[in-house]
Every structure is written in C-alpha cells, then in structure tokens.
Amino acid sequence: MADKIDTGMVDELESGPWPSFITDLKELSKRKPAVGQLLGQLNQSYKDKWNYWQGTVLNVDGYGGGIIARYSELSQQYPAIAQFHTIRVIPPAGWVYSTKTLRNLCDIWDKHGAGIMQMHGMTGDILLLGTDNETTFDCAEELFENGWDLGGSGGALRTLACCVGQARCDMACFDTMGLTTHLTNTYISQLHRPEFPYKYKFKLSGCPNDCACSMQRSDMPIIGTWRGPMQINQDEAAKFVKEHGEQYVIDNVITRCPTNCIKLEGKKIAVDDPNCVRCMHCINVMPKALRPGKDKGVTILLGGKRTLKIGDTMGSVLVPFMKMETEEDYQKLTDLVDRIWDFWGSNAHDHERVGEFINRVGLGTFLEGIGLEPDPQMVRAPTSSPYIKFEELAPSRFGGESKHNPAVRSEEVEAMERAE
Amino acid sequence: MADKIDTGMVDELESGPWPSFITDLKELSKRKPAVGQLLGQLNQSYKDKWNYWQGTVLNVDGYGGGIIARYSELSQQYPAIAQFHTIRVIPPAGWVYSTKTLRNLCDIWDKHGAGIMQMHGMTGDILLLGTDNETTFDCAEELFENGWDLGGSGGALRTLACCVGQARCDMACFDTMGLTTHLTNTYISQLHRPEFPYKYKFKLSGCPNDCACSMQRSDMPIIGTWRGPMQINQDEAAKFVKEHGEQYVIDNVITRCPTNCIKLEGKKIAVDDPNCVRCMHCINVMPKALRPGKDKGVTILLGGKRTLKIGDTMGSVLVPFMKMETEEDYQKLTDLVDRIWDFWGSNAHDHERVGEFINRVGLGTFLEGIGLEPDPQMVRAPTSSPYIKFEELAPSRFGGESKHNPAVRSEEVEAMERAE
Amino acid sequence: MTTATTKVRKKGPRDNGAPDYKQNLHPLMVKNYGTWAYHEFVKPGVLVYVAESGDKLWVVRAGSPRTMSVDKVRKICDIADRYAEGYLRFTSRANLEFSLAKEANIEPLIKAVNKELGFPVGGTGHSISNVTHTQGWLHCNLPGTDAAGSVKALMDELFEEFVNDDKLPMRVKIAASCCQINCGGQADLSINLQHHHPPRIKPEGVGICELPKVVAICPAAAIRPRAKDGTTTLEVVDEKCMYCGACHGQCPTMEIRDSETDTLSIWLGGKTSSTRKGPAFMRLAVWGLPNNPPRWPEVGEAVKKILSAYKQTGRKFERLGEWVERIGWKKFFELTGFPFTKYHIDTTEMARSTFNTSAQVRL
Amino acid sequence: MTTATTKVRKKGPRDNGAPDYKQNLHPLMVKNYGTWAYHEFVKPGVLVYVAESGDKLWVVRAGSPRTMSVDKVRKICDIADRYAEGYLRFTSRANLEFSLAKEANIEPLIKAVNKELGFPVGGTGHSISNVTHTQGWLHCNLPGTDAAGSVKALMDELFEEFVNDDKLPMRVKIAASCCQINCGGQADLSINLQHHHPPRIKPEGVGICELPKVVAICPAAAIRPRAKDGTTTLEVVDEKCMYCGACHGQCPTMEIRDSETDTLSIWLGGKTSSTRKGPAFMRLAVWGLPNNPPRWPEVGEAVKKILSAYKQTGRKFERLGEWVERIGWKKFFELTGFPFTKYHIDTTEMARSTFNTSAQVRL
Ligand code: SRM
Ligand code: SRM
Ligand code: SRM
Ligand code: SRM
Ligand code: SF4
Ligand code: SF4
Ligand code: SF4
Ligand code: SF4
Ligand code: SF4
Ligand code: SF4
Ligand code: SF4
Ligand code: SF4
Questions:
Q1: Which ligand is nearest to the CA of B208?
Q2: Disulfide-capable partner of B205 in A20, B132, B212, B345 (CB 3.0 to 4.6 Å)?
Q3: Does residue C256 have its Cβ closer than 6 Å to ligand 10?
C-alpha cells in the first residue's frame, strides 16, 4: 500500500538544512503502515489546505483526560489511521531523561502505537501520536506498569512544566524540579479528573528570566526571586569592566536597568537594592560578577493565558515573596492553591479561566474570596478611576450593598434573599 | 443688614499668609450688600456642609450660553442673592491685559454686578459673579458695546485657552495667541449657539511642556513641536557641563531621555534626532544650550477630558505634524475641525464627547469617517488582539459586513434596511 | 424667567469674538514676539527672558486667590501702571504675572505686591504654585465641599513652598475639585470629593427634569423609569450605580451629596506635559479624609506628609508621580504610613492594565 | 467507543504522578544541584557551567524537529550513552541538550549529532532558537494551516541564525499557531493563522453537540438558538462575531476555517521574561500573507525582511519588541516596507491604552 500513497507535496519538506520530520516518518512508515497513511492524509491536507481530523473523547479507566482522540475523515482511503489518538504522558520535571527511562518509553510505544513521539508538547507533555481505541488502553496500562502516568486535558489541572533550574542553572532561586514534582503528585487527582470550571496550568521558572514561559502560558506562574542584596563579586566586576570598557558597561548594563538603580562607581558596581526589581538584566550580562541574593524564594502570580475569548493575559503578582524550601513552605503554597481552586471552582462560569474570572469579579473581591491581604506590589499603580465603592464609608441605610462588580458569593446573596 | 450676618466660620479663613478672598469680599461687601449676603450663605454652607444654590438656564438674546444662572435656596434670609448668576467672558488669548482693558472690564462689572471676578475659570473664561435676571442683560450689552463677548457653555464650543507662547516663552513653536484668536473668531457661532452633541474644548500649548494642560483638559489639544534637528549651541553646552559637572548632566539629562537618544560626548551634546520624541526634558534643563529645531509646527491630538462617565481620557495623536504659520495652514486646520465636527455631530449620542465617541466606534472607523489616513504615530503600538475584521480579506459572500464596533453611519444602515 | 430677554433695550453688537491680544501685550512682547532666546531664574518668583535682539524682559509672578473684588483688580492695575508699563497677565494657574522692561522696578514692584495687594511673590521653578480649583459653595449647584476656602487653608500650609523655588525636587502642581464631576484638572496632587452612595431621588422634584434625558445620561444604566400613582418617576438600581453624580448635574432631584458621608481623597501623579515618559493620570493615594470646614486640617496634614516624603527621597527633575513610580507604591505607603487597601485596586474595564504583570518586585 | 474500557484486562497502577526527576539527572547535576556558580559561552550551541565545587559541566544543544520516530529517539539515546554519561534533556523550546562531564567529548558528540541524527548544533546565545509550534494538520481537529511543516520550511531559511550565536542583537524566539486558539505562545515573532468570517454552520451536524454549551462559549454572545422545522438549530449574528473560533473548538459544526480566505499574520514583540521593562504582548505587524504550502515562501520572505532590519539597527541585548519600541513603529514600517493600516489600530475595550496619548512624535 505504501508505494501507492502520494506524498508529492510534503516531499518538498525533505530538502533544506533543518532536520525533516517527513524524512524521519517516511523511514518509520516502512515498518509502521499507519505512518505512511498519515503522510498520505497530510499530503492531502497540503493539497486542499484542509484538515481531515475529527475530534472526540476517549477515556482510560479511572481517568477523565489525557487522551486526545482523532478520527480520520479519509478513513476509506487510509483505514490504518481511522482512529489515530494522542496519549499525553507526564515527563520527569524539567524534561530530563536517563537513556534507560527514555528507551523504556520508546519500547512501550513501539509495541503499542504508531511510534511517533513529540518531545514535547507546548504544555510540556510527552505526546505519543497514533493509537486506536484498542491499543490506547493496552499502551496506557503498560505505561502505568512502568511508572508513567497520563497528562491532563479538559477542565482539569494540566501537566506542569518548569525550567531546568537548580539542576544546572546558576540563576535558579528555587528547586523548580522538586516543586513541580511535588505539585504534580499532590494534585494528581485534579490532573486526572476534570472537575474545574476550565483548565488550570502551573509553570515554574527558577528566576525572572522565565525560561518556562510561565507569565504568558500558565494560570499560576511561580517564579524564583530573592530578598535583600544581590551578590556582587567586585573582582569579577572589575575584570568585566576592564575587558569590555566602561562605555560598554554604561550602554549595556547601567542604562538598561528599569529602575535606574545600578551604578558604576569607578570599576565597582553599586546596586540600590531596595529599588532593584529583580529584573535579572545586569546579572544576565555579567553572570560571573553578579548573582541573585542569598535569601531566595518565589514570587507567585496568577491569571496568565493565551488569546481565546478575552485576549491574552499575563500572570499578575499575587504573593510578592514566599520562601520555598521546607515542607511547611510547600504546605503554605498548596493551602493557597486550595483556597484559589475553592473560590474559583465554586464561583466561576463554565470555561472561565482564573484570569478571566478575576477580570469579571475584580481583583479586590477575589483577594477577599481567597483570604489574602491586598499588597501594593500586586499593581503597577492604584486606580485612576474615582468610581469606587468604599463599603466602610457608605451610610448605614445603604450599607452592605454589593460592589461595583457583581457579587461572587452568590450563595450568600441567595440565602439573604430567602431570609427576608 | 450686613452686621447681622454671621460669618463666624469663614472668618477663620482670614488668618494665614496666603491672600484671603474672604477679607477681600468683606471689604467689597461694604459697598455691595449682595456680597455680604453671599458670605452669609457661604458661612451657612460651612456650618451645614451643604450647598444652597439651584441652577437653571438664562440666555442673553441671540446667545445659547455664557450665563451660569444660580438661585439661592436661602433667598428668604438673603434676598440680595436670590438670583446670583455668573457671566462667562472671553479673555484676550493668553490672559494678557493692558490696564486699560482691565479697568474697562472692572468699570462695567462694578456698574452692573456684585463686583466679584475670578481670573480665570478652569476653562479659561473671565468669570463675573453676581448678577440678577435684569442686570445680566444690561451688563452683557455694555460688555458687547466695549468689544467683549460671552464665553461658551452647554453643548457648544467652549472658550479656548492657550499658554503665553511666543509672546514671552523661548520654547514656543507656534503662535498660540494668534491661533487661539483665529479659532475663537472663526467658530464664534459654534461657541455661542450649542449645536454639538456635547461640549468641545480646544487648548493650545506652544510646546510639549503643555503649560495649558491641553492633553487632559481639552478635546482637541494643539501642541507646538518641530521637525528635523534640535538646535544645539555647543559653547553653551560646554559651559553648562563645566558649571554643573559631567555626573550632573548624566544623572539629570542623559539618563532621563525617554528614548535614550541624547549623549554626552566629552563636553559636547549629541542628539540622535530621528529618535528624539520632542519630550522637551533636555531643553528644559539646558535652555541656553538646547532649543527646539527651526522647522516648527504643531501636533494635533484628540479626545482629552476629565472623569465624568468613562473616566479620564487624554488627547491622542491625530496629526503628528502640521505647519501652522500661513493662512493656508490655518485653513487646513479648520477644514480638519469641520470634518471632525461633521462626523461627530451627526453620529455621536447626546452628551457624548469626541473621545467617548472614538472609544465607542473605534479610532480606525473614526479616521475613515473624517477622511484621515492611519499613521503609526497615532498609537504607541499596534493591537495585540487577533480579533480583527479585515474587510478586504472577507469572502464576497460575507463582504461588506459591518465591523467589530457598531456601525456609526447609522443613517446608511437604516436606509439599507428600508430598501430591503 | 427668559421673558426678560423680550424687554426692549438698546442692543450691543453680537459675536465680537476674542479681544485682540496684540492690544494687550507688553511692548517688549510685541517687539520680540517669537524670538525669545532663553530664560533664567533670577530668584523665587522672578525670571528674566532674553530675546534674540538682546532685549530683556523681567517677569514677576504673584500668588492670587483667583476670586477677587473689582477693587483688588484695580489695585493690580495701579501697580502694573507704576512698574510694568501698564501690562499684566494671568497664568494658567490663576497667578498674576507682571512683565517689566526695567530691572530696577523688580524690588519696588514686589514690595507693592506684598504690601498693597497682600499677595506673595513666588510660584516659579521648583515650587508649589497656586492650586487650581473650582467653584465650591460660592457658586456651583453641585458641590459637596468648598473650593476657594479649602484652597486658601491649604496654601497657608504650603506658603513656604510657594515663596521658595528650591525646596522641592521639581515643580508641584496641586488641584482641587468639589464634586465627582471634577472640573479641577489632573495634577501632581489633587484633593477631590468622593460620594458614597447612589443618589436619593427627591420625589417632589421629579417633574422638573426631562426624565428620558436623566435616564440617558447615566453611564452605568442604573436609572430606570417607574410608574407610581399614575405618573412616571425614576428609580436607581443601587448595585449598578457608581456614584458618579452625572445624573445630579442633569437634574437636581438626583441628590448625590451627603453632608454626613461625603469624604475627600488625595490623588497623585497626574501629569499633562509630554516630558520624559509623557503624560500620566493621577492615582488614588489616600481616601476617607473628613470634609472638615473651615480649614480642613486633616487634608493639610496628609498633603504635608506626602510632600515631606517626596522632599526627602525625590530626585531632581522628578515629578511627584515619577518619584512614586521609581521608588514603588509599596515604598510610598511605607514612607507615608497610609494604608494600601482593596479600594486602591482598579475595578474598571482597564483594570488588568494596572496589574503588576511581571515578576518585578521590590524585596 | 468507550465500551472498550469494559473489556477485561490487567490493570496497571493508577495516579503514579510524575517520574522521579532525580533518577533522570546527570550525576554532576545531582552532585551540584543548586550550587552552580556561573556559565560561559564556549561556542555556538555549547555552554559550560561551573559549580561552586569547581565541577564543570558542558552542555551541547541540538535543534530538533520535535516530531520524531521512536527510532530517532533511540539514536539520540545511543549518542547520550556514548558521550554524555547516558543522560539528556529537552529544552522548553523542544531542543535537545546533552550534558557532558568531559570536555573532550564535545566534538565527537557534535559530529555524531550532525551525522547520525542530522540535527544541527546551535540555538544558544544571540541566535534564533527552535520555533515553538502546535499540531497543525498532523493531529489537531481545528487547524487552518500546518505547523511542523511550515516550521521546517522556516527553519531552513533561518538556519544560519540557529547555528551562530552572534548574528543578532539578542536571542530571538519564534512561535507559530495553526488556528486562532493560538496554542503557540507569545514570542518575539509569531506566525499565526487568521480567520476572516463567522463560522458557517454545517446543518447536518447540529445534533451532535450540546447546543447550550455552544451558545455559552461564545465570548461575543453572537450565537443564538433558532427554531427550524420543529427542531432547534443555531444561528450566528454576523455583526457580533469576532471570528475567534471558540465555538469551533466546542462543536465541529461551527466551521470557522476557509481554505480560500484564511491568511497568516506576523506578530512582533512578545516577551515573557521580566527583564528590563518586563513582559510584553506581541503586536500585529504584517497581515494577509497567503497560507501557501508546502513551503510558505511569502512568510519566510517577510520574516527575513524583519530580521534584517533588526540586525541592522538593533542594539545589543535589545529584544525584537524593545528594538521596535525604541525606534518607533513608524520607523519599523519604513524600514520593512510593510503598510500600517487601520487594522493595526486596537478596537478592544483596552484600545485607548494603546493610543499615543502624548505629544511624543518622531519627526
Ligand atoms: C498539543 C498542543 C499543541 C502542541 O502541538 O504542542 C495543544 C493542542 C490543542 N489545544 Fe492547546 N495545545 C497545547 C498547548 C497549549 C498552550 C501552550 C501551553 O500550555 O503552554 C496554550 C496556550 C496557553 C493557555 O493555556 O492559554 C493552549 C491553548 C489552548 C486553548 C485556548 C485556551 C484559552 O483559554 O485561551 C484551547 C481551546 C480550549 O481549551 O477550549 C486549546 C485546545 C487544544 C486542543 C485540545 C483543541 C481542541 O479543543 O480540540 C488541541 C489538541 C490537538 C491535538 O490533536 O493534540 N489549547 N494550548 C499543546 C498541548 C501539548 C501538551 O500537553 O504538552
Ligand atoms: C466654573 C468652572 C470651575 C471653576 O471654578 O473654574 C466649572 C464649573 C462647572 N462645570 Fe466644569 N467648570 C469649569 C471647568 C471645567 C473643566 C476644566 C477645563 O475646562 O479645563 C473641566 C474638565 C475638563 C473637561 O472638559 O472634561 C470641567 C468638567 C465639567 C464636567 C464634566 C465634563 C465631562 O465630559 O467629563 C461637567 C458636567 C457636564 O458637562 O455635564 C461640568 C459642569 C460644570 C457646571 C456647569 C455644573 C453644572 O453642570 O451645572 C459648573 C458650573 C459652576 C458655576 O456655578 O459656575 N464641568 N469643567 C470652570 C469653567 C470656568 C470657565 O469657563 O473658565
Ligand atoms: C506661566 C505659565 C504658562 C502660562 O501661559 O500661564 C508657565 C510658564 C513656564 N513654564 Fe510651565 N507654565 C505654566 C503652567 C504649566 C503647567 C500647567 C499647570 O500648572 O497646570 C504645566 C503642566 C503640568 C503638568 O505636567 O501636569 C507646566 C509644565 C511645565 C514644564 C514641564 C515640567 C515637566 O518636566 O513635566 C516645564 C519645564 C520645566 O519645568 O523645566 C515648564 C516651564 C515653564 C517655563 C520655564 C517656560 C519658559 O521658558 O518660559 C515658564 C516659567 C516657569 C516657572 O514657573 O518657573 N512648564 N507649566 C504657567 C504658570 C502657571 C503658574 O502660575 O504656576
Ligand atoms: C534551556 C532553557 C531552559 C530550559 O529549561 O529548557 C534556557 C536556558 C538558558 N536561558 Fe533561557 N532558556 C530557555 C528558554 C527561554 C525562554 C522561553 C522560550 O524560549 O520560549 C525564555 C523567555 C523568552 C521571552 O521572554 O519571551 C528565556 C529567557 C532567557 C533570558 C531573558 C532574555 C531577556 O533579556 O529577555 C535569559 C538571559 C539572557 O539572555 O541573558 C536566558 C538565559 C538562559 C541561560 C543563559 C541561563 C543559564 O544561566 O543557564 C541558559 C542558556 C541560554 C542559551 O540558550 O544561550 N533565558 N529562555 C531554554 C532553552 C530553549 C531553547 O531551546 O532555545
Ligand atoms: S528561568 Fe532562570 S533559573 Fe530557569 S533556566 Fe532560565 S535563567 Fe535559569
Ligand atoms: S536586576 Fe534589574 S532592576 Fe536589579 S539592578 Fe539589575 S538591572 Fe536593575
Ligand atoms: S507650553 Fe511651552 S511654549 Fe507654552 S509656556 Fe509652556 S514652555 Fe512655553
Ligand atoms: S527632547 Fe526628550 S527625547 Fe529629545 S533628546 Fe531631549 S530628552 Fe531625549
Ligand atoms: S467640580 Fe462639581 S461642584 Fe465643583 S464646580 Fe465643577 S461641577 Fe461644580
Ligand atoms: S450617580 Fe451616576 S451611576 Fe449613579 S444613577 Fe446617577 S448617573 Fe447613574
Ligand atoms: S492552535 Fe488551534 S489548530 Fe493548532 S493545535 Fe492549537 S487548537 Fe489545534
Ligand atoms: S467564532 Fe467566536 S465570536 Fe464567532 S460565533 Fe464562534 S465563538 Fe462566537
């Protein structure tokens, strides 16, 4: 059958210096006919500028997500891909593998599926492309046997992602891999069984460089930072200035500081630490001379997501600083997460992510809902609108009236109404 | 009667180093009983924290505005202020007076009114406080006889305001007084007869320092600027550097430039003119060394106002640069104004200022409506939302559909509906 | 009422337009119009302008209460005639400016201004200039507080900052507004009235206004007509109302003020100039200050607390809002001791644009 | 379909959670965890990390197509076993990273990666790293274009920028998304699909989805139920619809794609790092590019035009968006020759926050 398949258009993707997945998959198709048919359908898509997948839902026993089911509309022509599902698999935190681990995955997948892997999906999962309704289950069970687990999908916690962090990076301010693993395992049930209004993503970056793209691609970015003074090695600083020249340092370090808080005093670097906003720039340029401070922790943000519906949002500061080292620190974090999920879970609309929910109810109300004190670091600047409802200042006859934004504790309101 | 009036509370405003209007008005009350009664009512307001003025409308023959009519709720007690109106009078542009002019005004006002003047109102008018239904007319007629005219109120053009500009300021890039006078006289009918959806204010500043507060307090800010290179006097620059020291210049000039486009090269100042955004800062600090460029003109903006309803707005760039020297330049400006008034006038809601109108219909649609090409200088940055309706790219079967924002040419829509 | 216009009387001309400014310019201004080369600060309240022709014009600025008797204005004219060639102007902050052809006239003029008018000279350079303000109880029909009076009390407190020009990092512009309509401008620091509940409708008044217009003006669509005893009256949906007072301006029946609950708020960081980062809006700093005539001491205290922190930590040429931005609002609240509350957090459609969407924190 | 789950079969454990990362770390990473002192760039694609202990770890990065056969992944393992102590990792941009205890292994490893895998080494420093992308026609049910294929074509064009680390002012992150849902991230430069009309409802399909859910998901409230021939179907109010495709994700019947009219747009200036001025969103730069498989040449051309302007006028450490901000969008459009149109002007609720509300202009 393979030789009958037209791949004329996708063949054009075999030339050029960048590695071609077409060439690789063609090779694979020699022993996996489904892959050949996949290339055939893909070629048809290229011709027609049209897609031929239908999506539905398929669940492994005890799981409410993790499988992205696809049915081909061209199954007449390409029966081997009539069903062609993706299994999302949770990777080790930070996408680190021993060859043993990775070979084990390859073996299981070669046995049960089409043998196409994506390392990794945008959320961070290992994506295994190409099972049918039958092999999905067999594959999943063998994955489970070998210690693997399914990733998230639907209105659930999604697979977490983090940067390489302390395993290898000199900038890292907390144990991204440790916390990612801890949160994954603590919330493994929320990850597998969709019970949220909509998806919820954590991404963890060891420092504000945010190599895990947490700010814009996760509902709850957790970003490493430090309190107190930056570490400065003046000898290395002097070496750097000598090597590159003063003008270079002024043009590329001093004038780039967002708060104008770093100075070159002779060959010495002086940082006005209380005004340093931990933007990382100077440290990035002079990593031998400058390092994050010693009292490390995290900043916790909330509400990032990509476009759909209200447009892109970024995380915004929720907790400016939290230590993140001990059991108790982890406990404090999961307590906060629980309160957020509780309030969001009971008050959000269907398909409303936590950032959209905050947009609707207001950050002030949200903070009350989760029991967190307002902090000026949560905002760039206070409101410029005078239309504010100060409950404390309302006369008693108007007292207790609801705020500018719709009341979120709708249960209470209903109860009050009934009592009247 | 005067001695029976309680001014106990406002008397507290007679102490202290700042000049007291109470003292001044008390003096005046000796020959103007109404002023004494005004102080009495004011004192009552201080006691009760309550206001006792009712407002209505009063028009001078042939005028639709210019008088702010007030009736006292305490007229039983204070009959002399039963009617106590304000006459708004257009000042000479830039609030310049010869003593002859000013004495003439004092004389007319002393003759017909209570003799209280405010120099000037927030919009820029001369405010004459204290006439009744009768004297208002007599006063107005005598003002007219002497070349004065009434200011604006209601849904009309308001009295224009401008900074001192070229009359005395070394920063001025166009003739603020000349243009203010020209616009006032060209549009005197629109100023006197409310025919707009709502008020319209011009404020003119000779340079981006905006001493006339045009950005935030006028619908159409007109701000002086220049094209091409800044004028630099390197001798004066060197003197300045010598006098203040290099560090001072770096800290107070170089690092304050918003686009990082000014440098100190030895004792010389170098400006990367294409990236200079005419913010004025460096010129303000070194007015002898630096001056606006020679090819002067204006930037025209649109949409500023204070809080009411949608919150504060600022003007935003409409025409990045226009020469403003000749008859033809003036004509080009009034043509533009006419088009704006036409489009806004026929499509805005009642009580909708031009900035609010743009908010509702979208700037793109507005530009089409007034026949102006989009210019990247109108925005800080292009949109970040992918939800855009590219009419050119819509297939013909969906062609001609209306845009994201409600169609503004509602007449056309109606006509089309009727045709069906 | 408008019947008065029908009375037969002699009619003056109409549509005169603006008085000719050229007739009102100091001769040196006419001569050097558009060719001024530079200026220098001579001393507080006094600048000198040098024209390309070499001519010099000295400008003396005096603080004015804005509200004046004709008699006071005539005295001003007297002084201008004596020392300033018979010309004067007012500034955009209602200050008085005399232009002098002769340097020798500066001191005599200052003396006359101080003695004969009782006005201080100052307001230039890095000073606190006059407070721009509104009508208040003197003339408007909407105010919840006084304007001219509260400003007089405040300027008494800030007098030293007016008559000096180097006590502050940068010039400070203050404004005050007497109702939420805010005729007072944006400013470095502004004191504004704040209402705290929806308008109470005075039932006796409902007839006097055009109901559809009142309904239409509400930006929150909170007003709706209601049939009552055969006639139509209005009602306000409390939850929707944002206490803006737009309806009160349209119809006195919609009483928004409340002498017991209205308070004053302090807003910071407004800026209209395009210098450096450009114009900015004011932000809520302090709320719930009592509306306390005749001298509003709590407001004066709060303002001075803020200015004192600014004086201590502001950098030269750094406007009040730029200072707060640099040191961060966290530091601002620490330095001044005012609380940061949930009410400081924006709840409008633009709220998200005010959030700290970065990991930039001060720790 | 789900009957399959009822089949009797041996069940594995459940809720395993994440594999233990510690088992998968290179020994030097375990030893020096959290105590890395600094890093240095050795050459394109190669960095060295120095720990406080003095240990050195060499990291070699290789470009990967992300979509790979198990056979390819096994070859990767072979190489890691030979030169990298049996460990490897993937980056957040789907690149491959080998960690080496021995400097001497660098060159042999690079040779093996090039030869045996056909992968280039690079993507570090001021390079263009791998393009993050989405499923496209390979697996998703919603795409209007392909992802892996168009990215392969683009990376062929940008190969030199990948294998060098000093051809650009700063690192450039590129992303691509295959429908308006945008699973691809924000990036310095992103190529995204754009729909141009409301969904056409496939009448035959309306039964298959829960209508209330479809109605509810629409952010513009553009979908409403309509009775037709006794059953309920849906209709879209064209004027309200913003072509977002949210309904298409909910129900395949709401066909939003159109092979004739869908186009590609280029967005610039996304940034997630909090460096300097902090994170930023991408902005529309170029629209209406044809969706032209198999190699999308027009997109490659446009991208190169932008990058060439950036290379010429960007300053060191200035991300793409920071560069445009500094030189101004006016200059950007001049340098690249793309037009600025009314579609570039924001029309959302936040529109006003994108306007140039200052007199700051470049003239
Ligand atoms: C596979 C993946 C793209 C890829 O090739 O890497 C993907 C694919 C899909 N995404 Fe996604 N998203 C993927 C990462 C993302 C990301 C990026 C991220 O997580 O960092 C985003 C943007 C960030 C965010 O969460 O907003 C993203 C935003 C969406 C959205 C819009 C959500 C929103 O609230 O804006 C949808 C639509 C929805 O959820 O209704 C969506 C929906 C989908 C669906 C499930 C389409 C659907 O509704 O049927 C796609 C399934 C394709 C398939 O056949 O496998 N996907 N999706 C990524 C997940 C792989 C993994 O698990 O590792
Ligand atoms: C007199 C004056 C305050 C003062 O003491 O200086 C003033 C007083 C009033 N203003 Fe004002 N406004 C005055 C300048 C302003 C300014 C400042 C400016 O023009 O630079 C603003 C803010 C800028 C702007 O235009 O937005 C201003 C924004 C308003 C508004 C809100 C308009 C808006 O769209 O946001 C209203 C309410 C309205 O128009 O419905 C208003 C309405 C009023 C009324 C007419 C109240 C009313 O609706 O009955 C006040 C009459 C008071 C009286 O008894 O004279 N006044 N008003 C100022 C006019 C004097 C003059 O003509 O020179
Ligand atoms: C006289 C006046 C114009 C007028 O037509 O009336 C004026 C005159 C001058 N202004 Fe102004 N400004 C005047 C109101 C303003 C205003 C509006 C206001 O106060 O409400 C502003 C905008 C404020 C804002 O942004 O909110 C204003 C923003 C400036 C600036 C920009 C400051 C900045 O960096 O943001 C400068 C430049 C400077 O300070 O170096 C400036 C500089 C000047 C200079 C030095 C310009 C010159 O070369 O003559 C003038 C003398 C300054 C002095 O007071 O030391 N003037 N100036 C106004 C005096 C008001 C007063 O009595 O205090
Ligand atoms: C390996 C990786 C983390 C991981 O866990 O996988 C990583 C690793 C490093 N990043 Fe990163 N970044 C990685 C993705 C990112 C991302 C996310 C992305 O690419 O989607 C970002 C955010 C991009 C954004 O803002 O949109 C990112 C923003 C940075 C920055 C901040 C740049 C800036 O100034 O804005 C630095 C600092 C720098 O460049 O000096 C940085 C610096 C570094 C350093 C030098 C940190 C260190 O000391 O080890 C690492 C080697 C850099 C190199 O490539 O030359 N890394 N880095 C990711 C490699 C991706 C790839 O294969 O190309
Ligand atoms: S986010 Fe920071 S800690 Fe993590 S890899 Fe990037 S630079 Fe290193
Ligand atoms: S980390 Fe950023 S804010 Fe802090 S000193 Fe360095 S450049 Fe400035
Ligand atoms: S706006 Fe400019 S020109 Fe006008 S007075 Fe102020 S500094 Fe002078
Ligand atoms: S005017 Fe402003 S933008 Fe231009 S060089 Fe001077 S400081 Fe820079
Ligand atoms: S702020 Fe309000 S009360 Fe004060 S003058 Fe303006 S409209 Fe009247
Ligand atoms: S105060 Fe404002 S929001 Fe409330 S009813 Fe009146 S107009 Fe509407
Ligand atoms: S961007 Fe759209 S088409 Fe592409 S993977 Fe995501 S949901 Fe599917
Ligand atoms: S494309 Fe978006 S806006 Fe249009 S109907 Fe579907 S969900 Fe609604």
A1: 7
A2: B212
A3: yes
